[in-house]
Queue: 3 jobs
Job 1
Amino acid sequence: MTVDDRTLEQVAMSRDEYALLVARLDREPTEVELGMAGALWSEHCGYKHSRPLFHHFPTTGPYVLTKIGEENAGAIDLGDGWIAVFKMESHNHPSALEPYQGAATGVGGILRDIFAMGMRPVALLDSLRFGLLDDAHQRYLFRNVVAGIGGYGNCVGVPTVGGEVQFDRAYSGNPLVNAMCVGVGRREHLLSAAARGPGNPLLLVGADTGRDGIHGATFASVELDEGSGERRPAVQVGNPFLEKLLMEACVELAEQHRDWIEGLQDLGAAGLTSSAVESAHRAGTGIEIDVAKVPRRERGMTPYDVMLSESQERMLVIPKREHLDDVVALFRRWELHADVVGVVTDDGMATVRDGDAVVARVPVAVLAEAPQYPLQGRRPERLDRLHGENLGALPDLDAARANAALLELLGCENIASRRWIWRQYDHQVGNHTVVRPGGDAAVLALGGGTRRGIALATDGNGRLVWLDPRVGAQIAVAEAARNVVATGATPVALTDCLNFGNPEKPEVAYELEQAIIGLSEAARALGTPVVSGNASLYNETPQGAVLPTPAVGMLGVLEDVERHLTPALRAGDAVVLLGASPAQPAESLAGSEYLARAHGRVAGRPRLDLELEARVQRLVLEAHARALLAAAHDCSDGGLAVTLAECCLAGGTGFEAAAGLELGARLDAALFGEAQSRFLVGVCEPAALAALLALARDAAVPATLLGRAGGARLRLGPLDAALDAMREACEGGLERALAG
Amino acid sequence: MPALRVAIVVFPGTWSDRDCGYALGRLGVATRRVWHREAAPFARDELVVLPGGFSYGDYLRCGAVARFSPVMEAVRAHAGAGGLVIGICNGFQILCEAGLLPGVLMRNDSLQFRCQDVLLVAAQHDSPFTRGIARGRVLRMPISHGEGNYYADEATLDRLEDAGRVAFRYVAAGAGAGAGAGAGAGAATAEANPNGSLRNIAGIVNERGNVLGMMPHPERACEPLLGGEDGNAIWQSVLASVGVSA
């Protein structure tokens, strides 16, 4: 074999993979062919370590129109002819090197996935992870990632309505930046990314092609190291203005001229190569591209550069031959140039020419079907040790310190108000946003004459997955669904982004496999199939892997968006805890924020009863359908006391515990334990309270009357905190952390 | 009674055009969209809306490129003939860049983009945009901008104040009565003023009172479901001034 190690390293291909490629081709590949195969066989494009596990996912359900893997994003039926398409994707490695542009182009990429399907993007969410903010570099990354998300989304005019952020040292060298986008439209406007109809032209629209981002897909598929800074040229620069024009033109094409085109596909990782090859693979056709016809941004680009460039803001359109001129004219009107760069063929080959010279000619299937590697997992030894820790042996919280502990938790970077973030994002443009950021989930009205709405949330607690990959991933799904349920919406489907370390390491492989199994179990139990997603592996630095973090994006449906719930309690509301009672054993502190802060440890064994979870969620939806609830909030990070404080702050009211409320033997577990499957709800009338308690009894869900909202202080057991003090702690927490 | 006609100008990068159409549609007002390359004159009785967005990406300076668009000649002629023009957010920036309104919108003093609700009062009541707004009425509506920090030299600010051309001011909760009385109206706290605008200015009108520029987004505060409908007060004032009841 003639290829040298350096060339293989550039395309992140192993010698064995090279040998496989030679065998499949029955000859040595050309330089361009090798580059194309390397990109498409990268983990980022080819999912070679994660795809063998995807069979676990539940993928079908009554609302699912487009299943995972069929198109760029999953499509869901919302009723009345409306559909939503949504997906979440990672941009971790680019953001580690160049946080502003890395995050910005992550937003740009996920937007294109959505409008490639003909739907108008109506919402963006972001799931972010950084190291602790006591480190100046983490503050730099955090500030610039937030600025980059805002810079792109605000300019393009799609609101950023939600998401979450968590901070842990394990993310210090490798932050996670996952962006989710949701598009909405009419079912008849849904487009496919298939290159159908041999003889139809391939039209490249949008930005000129430059050398930026070459090997970006490869870079996303290796570990970060000291030399990664040199990969900065693999990070692209975004132009949201151009994206806005592309978006308007593509949505117009779908809404008004659906019959002009066969397919529409974005150019993302591996640029023209993946875009053309994947759309041909989808349609069972071939493609022929002439790189000489691709408009360039710079001189001297080789066919290799053109095929692998990841220049942003480009789309591949497959118009019907007879409508080519119409389509080009439409893009021109939006001040975009559109150039025919190739043609759909019927030979199943991906052919690349440079004028008269053929520089690559490979079967589409060879490129599109990356080798797959069954994972060789080994259960990490830490699990037994962590599960075996006796949390009951830890000293309990001193009642005299209860107030201070609550204020400290409310102000800590993992719990404090996220206002500092979302006030930098336009979260309203489009006039759909009914519940703004800051609650459990964002709620959007679809408009267009329907009363329907959607609720959106992201979740994924890496600590819990680290403690128990299977149960932690179940919890990620359960909590995302709970967030949606807390608005009164029925969760119907999810997207995920699997952020893990190097899957070639047995312990990471175990985590990945167990997490996918757990995620699938919860998705099945809660009736929320996986309709789209992305795997981001190799999130490692020489200091180790990130916490295993499956981020889950959940979509729920409201039949009448006016009838939604928020966490805001009103004075006079009876406050009820649905799910496990306040009296909890020390084990409920497993993986909790309190345990991390008060005792400096992440330990214990997280627990989830999926059947109870499903019953509790159904109960809340049933109670809401009967108009029994005035407020609802997922009881999670920071436990009961923090959840109650958040409800009080949202509603501007205090709380008085019922006389004789039993908090059990462990004060810390009662106040700050993070037992799963719990909601805190407000009920406004005595009759509603009686009806709720009866419903709970019938559903075999524990329900505890905690007390009543009112006054200007939160009083629960030894807690007696002023609303103003809680507000100051919570609202200023992030700014204080950022002050360093 | 003639219906109000509204033309919404769309520059490349405009994103509040659809929201403006939605808000006006709710009031029963039909709108037409005008692409920035169209230079045809507006009808004499049309309200021309320059909506929010990032025209041309605003990579140079907000509104600095848009002012050269062909449509701006028509806007200038329309304003010169006494036709009504309202510039919202990026539209306000474009009107300043085009010289149809004095002053500039600088980077927010926080150096960050801000999307949040603000409180406003009308600081004058003799333009078509404000005539129908009750004195002292506090309006809640959102802002969404990175460059809304109104700046003009002292002499210009004094001239604006003296001529009653400050249309809207940011005020703190609880402010209201006597809000037309100058810089002291409504406490000028950091909380009330989201961007550092001099004299708490959120919007101004030209000398004739037929051109309004404002940073807040009335088209977003158009129904209770979206958090309030105070923005309708401005559209309704225009409707009343041209003799149409909404």
Job 2
Amino acid sequence: MRDRAREWTAQHLPWISIALLALWLPPILFRLAVDAGLVAGRGYPALTDPSTIFSVIELALMVAAVPRLFDRKAAGWRLLVWSRFAVLAQTLWTILIYSRLTGVLPTMLDRAVIEAILGLLISAYVLFQIRPLYR
Amino acid sequence: MSHILRRLSEYVCRHPWLAIAVFVVAYGIRTNDEVEFRTISAAPFGMNLPPDHQFLYGSPFTFFVGSYYLHHGLDDRASYFVVHLLGVVLFFVALRKALARGLDDEGRRLATIVMLSSPLLFVVLSWIGKSDAYLLAFFLLLTMTASAATQVILCALMVLCHREMGAAVLVAYLFLKRRSWRAIVLGLALGEIALLAYTRVLLSSVPESRITYAVSHASMMWSIFWSHPLLHLLASFGPFWVYVVTRKTLTPAAGAVFVAALVLSIVSQDFTRVFVIVSTPLLLEMTREAVAELTQRGGIAIGGYRLGIQALWPLMFVQVQLAGPKLLWARGVDIVLGS
């Protein structure tokens, strides 16, 4: 990445994180509300389901990272990296479950799995490129 | 008694959010297009609306966000609620940041009260269901960013929020500011290309446009305007007229933006909504001028008097809004006009 691109990314990363949280938080909160019996609904994973647990951890880490990202603190960057590890754990869990049901190859060709892997690779690349901009 | 009133007034001026909260209670929140939102969000690439509502496909931003939520477990009501709640929150965050630019805390508070003397807040709260809050938020963020890439993205998002109003706000901004025109034109073009690709290629059939809709209703809208021209003028800037008429000078660009906003709003169904949104760049500029006068001279000169913000803030509660043949006022008061 060029210096200008790095700087732009670091400058806008808190806003990008907020936008992603705006997209990702409501479905999880809705899922939790259904599970807690606050909202009517069926067919949602239980609170104890590992995919729900990993999602909650991922989003909690992102929420914690946002204020630190505004201040360009390394702690914010680290929290964001840990949130990607939560996604990695969730993706591995999904691959494990789907592989048992449909086999390894169909699972690896599944759109959701491909998207998750691509997302992880891109975010890892971007995060390590901008690492020097955080103190 | 006057001492208590003065204290109360000063307190409200120090805490504009209190005035906003009272405004929300007095004027309420009105929701729109819930069925259309559900229909488009459920299948954004299928044409499932009757011709007289197909123009909504020209403002796909909120429907796509809603579609994302629908396909990630939210039901249609929750999706509608979340999309528009986030829009209103983003609007307030962007407004706060845009008004704080170059001003101290006191200036920002003054700017909030002056800006909200226009029907802007009334419009945002009474058209929940439209993408207005997002459009305004993206515009306010655009006025703050120095990055050309971010400007391009925000301009494209504005056009995706509302093809015609998004473009009109950007043209008005260019007219007034003449800055970053390359990024704005590029963003506008990208937004238009994305919309063309959506409506002409990706959508199952080409929707009726807003222009077709406006032409079919033009004579009715004109007759309503012609029967009540003063009411329309009053419902354009609302109490913000106080700050407009007390300006020492009005630049030709500002005059042109005012006339263009007026013409566009006359031919549209929702007069006040369209006028206020299209003239937001003008509102922002005049707000800054009014704040400068309020802080430097202690008040706005009206006749032989100079009125401070403590005397002017109650004006924000004197709002009316024209929407087609309807006059909207405080919560529960809608009057149908004769033409």
Job 3
Amino acid sequence: MVFDIPTKFAGIELNNPIIVASGILGLSQSIFKRLEKIGVGAIVSKSISIKPRDGYRNPTIVALGNNNWLNAVGLANPGAEAFAKEIANNSVPLFVSLVGSNVSEYIQIVEKIKNHNILGFELNLSCPHVEKMGMEIGDDPKLVSDIIRSIKTKTSKPLFVKVGIGKTDVIHIAKTAENSGADGVTAINTIRAMKIDITNRCPILENKIGGLSGIALKSIGVRCVYELYKSIKIPIIGCGGIQNYEDVIEYVMAGATAVQVGSMIGTYGINSIQRLAKDLKVYLEAKKYDSLRELIGVAHR
Amino acid sequence: MHIDKNILRIVRIKKTREETPSVKTLIFDDYLSHNAKPGQFLMVWIPQKEEIPLSVMISNSQGEAAITIRKKGLASTSLFNLVEGETIGIRGPYGNSFSTDPGFKHRLLIGGGTGLVPLVRLLNHTKNSDIFSTIIVGARSKSELFFIDLISHIMQDRQFELLIATDDGSIGFKGYPTELLDNIVEKDPKIDMVYTCGPELMMKGVYEIISKKTIQLEASVERYMKCGIGICSSCSINDKLVCVDGTVFNKGQISKLSEFGRFYRNKSGILDSY
């Protein structure tokens, strides 16, 4: 079943603009096929590192209520070698998310996967910075630029950069990405947050600090997309707290070309993606819009 | 009042019961878990240690719930060492459950180790039905056997037979529980339903025996889990997510799960073989 809301950007054509965000159902080819059948526009894989990573010990996810979640999985993933094998016969619209701690790692992963049948890559910049303690890769514009430029010399496949609320301004990083040759940005990533159990007087997550996702993120995500739309020309994929078609429309009106979902699936299940695509299509038809494109950035006047 | 089952609930250990020197049952108050269906599981957090999925065990009093663990890894050993008054966090119950269709005439339950937990819960939930029950319990040896008295107590006044298989023959049949199963289904044509939970290779053996018959089958499958809510894929088996699509799968579903009894995903998500 495909809910056709043709979506084109960065040389890519999707059946609809609903993309499953990185970290969500992102490591099994069989699950990818199921998601495709349900009607997703595309899937972003779990962030793949050069070596396999077990991630943090559980608890890696904490429910905060009201469809808000906190997670610190610790970038658990099978590594480039095993994942390249997993998607060797890939037939679904797939972006591969990349994570590394330096330019060379990113390049090595791209080399292993670039000839696979995938749509493109997404850069996860939330890996700890090796040289600058307490910082993430994404906080260092120079490093971000180097990574993007290096990847672009190795592959012609579209490269998206996932940006967020870090120590360096989101617009600054997005502009850096654009100037370095990125084909688009995904905004926004989760925001660092914490939950403490007052009975046992300790943070619940094994890693203590995690990433906040869900409804609480939405208005921040919409604001970021709105500001980015004014600052950059490359397409923006909106992400953060989307629960229903109205949220998708909001992101699109702020300037997003497509959207990513994640936490919604935790609350409403895997089939909620189908409902979202269906509702979006019904809305566009009811409003007599020929395509979602007509609505991109209309909130800017 | 609606309770969001995903939000961690801190509960105090009321009682502990030693089942064997390495197996313990922990009892606590929790309304949601008390009403869990047979086969459902909880995500259990031991503060500052770890969180693991555990099948919901039965408990006697209204509003009470229990879990049974064998000490093995960090989480289960930490749980085993807890004493009355200490607290744990729980969320759930999650997952589907064994079907309790009263249409069956003769059911057979086969399990081993802590895999017996959901089977015991199933027996307890359906103890008022007239179904004849054959129960096969497998263990390495007599000293590692548990729940035998409990099962006999639940099934008192009911028509049932309880068979034991041990690897070393220290009690009951000497051999695998699946050997007993094979003998029974060959002899007894009345069995129409088999439930199983335990080591996956044992369950694979059960499936292979049952697949050739017209008997129905339900197996509760175990996988490494992180989220418990169907978003991380850690527990995926083919295109199914054990935490939300399972943990119970029927014969038709299992026949399509080529990874069943052969592969599982490790902590990093790599497909490893058994």
